[in-house]
Design brief:
Layout lengths: L3 E3 L1 H18 L1 H19 L6 E2 L9 E5 L2 E7 L5 E8 L4 H8 L3
Parallel strand pairs: 1-5
Antiparallel strand pairs: 2-3, 3-4, 4-5
Helix pairs in contact: 1-2
Amino acid sequence: MSGYHVQDSAGYRLDQIYTYTREKWGEAQAETYIRGLFERFEAIAAHRFPWRPIPAEFGVDGYVSRYEKHFIYWKRHGDGGVGIVTVLHERMHQIERFRDDAPD
């Protein structure tokens, strides 16, 4: 498998982002923002966008990349694909929320 897979926890966060954006700025903006996130997932999977390792204090192996006001956390799979673990807003307490969303 190459490409990316959105894990359940990330899917939940994407639903929240869409709903919040739609309620705050309208459906067109919500669709544009979500589409942009998925384009970023594709760029990460294709190694076309820079990333950095998740900070050691998170206690997990993986990577983080930013898209506008959100941080995208992901892991590499053995088959070359990427698993999108979660997407968190910059104002969220990153370590706490990441631990809530990270698979065991």
